[in-house]
């Protein structure tokens, strides 16, 4: 049975700007990882699994969209946790010195994760990135971000012309 020293993982993640997540385990029915600061996030993730997010250090501001696409923000203070059902568009945002423990179900064969970006001016849908998460250690969030930020057409609103500012 794995025994994890959270402080050791947080210290390791604090010493690098390149890596923001550290997978703790990846089993058939459960994966867990620690994430450091998501202050740069602007997209909404649609995850086919549930998620449980525990604020190890610092506060989480979970931006999420309801069935009518209205944005809400749930505040999760340090020491608290939040359960999120599958397929709720969400955008976890927390400072660079904050850490979250995230537990979710490992993806089943054929399940697709989606990232949606919206115009910062008029909230019009901008772009979707999709992918299959086979290994969370490959940091799929960063891969989706790299594709989005390198695509000026995807970052430009077709409704009002605003260009999503670079992260």
UniProtKB/TrEMBL annotation:
Highest taxon of source: Bacteria
Keywords tagged on the record: Dioxygenase, Iron, Metal-binding, Oxidoreductase, Pyridine nucleotide biosynthesis
GO molecular function: 3-hydroxyanthranilate 3,4-dioxygenase activity; iron ion binding
InterPro entries from the UniProt entry: 3hydroanth_dOase, RmlC-like_jellyroll, RmlC_Cupin_sf
GO biological process: pyridine nucleotide biosynthetic process
Cofactor: Fe(2+)
SUPFAM superfamilies: RmlC-like cupins
Functional summary from the UniProt entry: Catalyzes the oxidative ring opening of 3-hydroxyanthranilate to 2-amino-3-carboxymuconate semialdehyde, which spontaneously cyclizes to quinolinate.
Protein name as catalogued: 3-hydroxybutyryl-CoA dehydratase
